[in-house]
Predict the 3D structure of the following.
Amino acid sequence: MKFYDCAVAPNPRRARIFIAEKGLDIPKVEVDIIGGENLKDEFLSVNPRGLLPVLELDDGTRFDETMAICKYLEDLYPDPPLLGTTPVERAQIECLQRKMEFDGMIATSEAFRNDTKNENFAYRSLPGNDVVGAIDGLVERGHNSLKLFYHWLEKYLSDSKFIAGDRFTMVDITALCAVDFAKWVELEIPKENTNSLRWYEEVSSRPSAQA
Ligand SMILES: N[C@@H](CCC(=O)N[C@@H](CS)C(=O)NCC(=O)O)C(=O)O
C-alpha cells in the first residue's frame, strides 16, 4: 500500500491519525498542496481531481476519500475499532462523524477558501483541480456554522469522555482535525466550553495526534 499525504492539510491528517491509531506503517508520498504539486500532471495521474489523501493498493486500486480509506482499513484491521463494533454503534458513529465533517471541516474550508485574502486558494473556492471562484458570503456562513459546531460539540461532550461515548473513535479524529483547522480562521473552542476544552487536551495528547 502507498498513502499520498500532505502534512499540513486536515483531511490527510484525519487518515494519518486513523492509520496511527491502528498501529499501521504505510509508506507515504508527500504532496505539497501549498506549492500546487497536487495540480501538476504527476499527481493528477494519481487523482484527476487533485485531492488528498489517496490510498493506493499494491494492485493499483486507489481510494480518494478519507472515509473510504478509513472504512477499508477498519475492515482489514478491526482492532482497535474506530468505526463502531455493532450495527447500531456503526450507524451512530456515522451520524456523528458526518456532523463533525460538515459542521467543522467544511465550515472552516468555506470560511478559509472564500476569503480573498488567501489568494492562493480563493480562485479555487472548492478544493482540488476544479476552478470555482470565491463567494464572499460564504466566509460569514462558514464562521456562523463553526459557532454551531462548537455549540454542538460541547453538548455531545457534556456527559461522555469522547464524542460518541467512552471510547475514542473516528468522530473524535474528525472533530480534532476540524478544531485545529478552525485555527486557520481564528475560531478556537470558546473559553466557557469546558467539556470541549477537557476533551481537546485529552485527544491532542494522544501520540496519533502528532502523526
Ligand atoms: N472529501 C474529501 C476532501 C479532500 C480534500 O478536500 N482535501 C484537501 C486537503 S484537506 C485537498 O486535497 N485540497 C487540495 C487543494 O486545495 O488544491 C476527503 O475527505 O478526502
Observations:
- The mean pLDDT is 96.
